[in-house]
């Protein structure tokens, strides 16, 4: 005796036979919906202006899964460290990564912790 399993997709909007399962995500939540090709086209057309204006996000779990962009809190901290370094005559770039030595010196409020730095004597 043979057993045959048939899977039939039904359009989740109107109950007609579906042609495909469409996957999408919004606000960090992934969705799947079975749609007839006309409804799938409507969904894609509705999202088109947003999709064209958006940037692609890295796939979850990829090495790039964590954003390389600094959060606003990181940017504020970097700005404070840069201002502190300038106040103490320490070399610091206007952009880019803050050195570990400079960050540790800032946390300790001790400019002498920056290797080879000349300080202005301000505290």
From TrEMBL:
Gene Ontology molecular-function annotations: acyltransferase activity; DNA binding
Coiled-coil annotated residue ranges, if any: none
Annotated keywords: DNA-binding
Domain Lsr2 dimerization: 1-57
Compositionally biased region (Low complexity): 56-71
InterPro entries, per database record: E3-bd_dom_sf, Lsr2-like_dimerization, Lsr2_dim_dom, Lsr2_DNA-bd
All copies of domain Lsr2 DNA-binding, residue ranges: 74-108
Region (Disordered): 47-123
Keyword Kinase included in the entry's annotation: no
One of the Pfam families matching this protein, by short name: Lsr2
Name of this protein: Lsr2 protein
């Amino acid at each position: 005796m043979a057993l045959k399993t048939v899977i039939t997709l039904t359009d989740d909007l109107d109950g007609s036979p579906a042609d495909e399962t469409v996957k999408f995500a919004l606000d960090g939540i992934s969705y799947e919906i079975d749609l007839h090709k006309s409804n799938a086209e409507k969904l894609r057309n509705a999202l088109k202006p947003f999709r064209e204006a958006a940037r692609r996000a890295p796939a979850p779990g990829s090495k790039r899964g964590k954003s390389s962009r600094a959060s606003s809190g990181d940017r504020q901290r970097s700005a404070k460290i840069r201002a502190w370094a300038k106040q103490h005559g320490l070399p610091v770039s206007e952009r880019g990564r803050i050195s570990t030595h400079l960050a540790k010196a800032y946390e300790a409020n001790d400019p002498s912790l920056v290797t080879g730095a000349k300080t202005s004597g301000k505290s």
